[in-house]
């Protein structure tokens, strides 16, 4: 029977192996986009598909791991844009641009996470449904942005509730507009950023900063 000490020694190796497998999955997704398959990912990693299943359970498990990996990186970039030393309008534009630049730089990854192909993704009956998995990504982004707004903008007595509404509304706007823009490219990224910022530039521009917060 494995001792606790043996298990602790094994953990870094398992975590490193999982990271290596996610990096292999990233390479396949960058190449194949929504069509990335478990077979292709296993081949890229130099392992068999049962070993891949052992680490992630199924394609849903691999999807969630990749989604967390990319969402963490995106959230870090968005926080940096929101906290940059600049005027509020400039930070709003920088935040919008950061999101759009991320999906533009890795469109195959974005499409894999949001629009997996019908022939590569198992059906909902098999435990994988893109809506069921992608919706939590957007909710997480919305909650994170709501926290930032609540910390930086004085919205009055109902500020926390309004911050959550704004957070999820802004993320929904970014997602819908970005998805449309990435598919059709009807304008430059700069023009889209300015136009979305203009849409937001109503009450947000008029609200005062919180006296006990870092400002926004």
Number of helical runs?
10
Overall pLDDT level: 83
Major sheet, described briefly?
none
Report the sheet-strand fraction: under 5%
**Poorly predicted residue ranges:** 118-130
Write the layout of secondary structure elements.
Elements: H1 4-32, H2 38-45, H3 49-56, H4 59-82, H5 88-105, H6 107-114, H7 130-152, H8 159-184, H9 189-200, H10 203-206
Please give a handful of descriptors for the protein shown.
216 residues, elongated, mainly alpha
Provide a compact summary of the structure.
By secondary structure, the protein is mostly helical. It is 74% helix and 0% strand.
Could you characterize the architecture of this molecule?
With 216 residues, the chain is an all-alpha fold. 74% of the residues lie in helices and 0% in strands. The chain has ten helices and no strands. It has helices spanning 4-32, 38-45, 49-56, 59-82, 88-105, 107-114, 130-152, 159-184, 189-200, 203-206.
């Amino acid at each position: 029977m494995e001792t606790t000490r043996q298990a602790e020694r094994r953990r870094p190796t398992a975590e490193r192996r999982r990271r290596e497998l996610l990096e292999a999955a990233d390479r396949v997704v960058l190449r194949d986009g929504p069509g990335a398959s478990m077979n292709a990912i296993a081949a890229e990693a130099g392992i068999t598909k049962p070993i891949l299943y052992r680490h992630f359970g199924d394609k849903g498990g691999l999807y969630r791991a990749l989604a967390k990996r990319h969402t963490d990186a995106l959230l870090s970039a968005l926080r940096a844009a929101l906290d940059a030393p600049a005027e509020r309008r400039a930070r709003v534009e920088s935040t919008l641009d950061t999101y759009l630049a991320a999906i533009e730089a890795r469109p195959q990854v974005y499409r894999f996470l949001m629009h997996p192909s019908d022939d590569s993704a198992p059906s909902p009956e098999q435990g994988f449904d893109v809506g069921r998995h992608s919706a939590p990504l957007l909710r997480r982004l919305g909650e994170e942005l709501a926290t930032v707004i609540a910390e930086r903008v004085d919205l009055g007595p109902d500020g926390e509730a309004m911050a959550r509404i704004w957070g999820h509304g802004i993320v929904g706007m970014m997602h819908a507009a970005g998805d449309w823009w990435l598919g059709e490219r009807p304008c430059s990224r700069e023009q889209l950023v300015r136009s979305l910022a203009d849409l937001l530039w109503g009450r947000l521009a008029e609200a005062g900063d919180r006296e006990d917060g870092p400002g926004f």
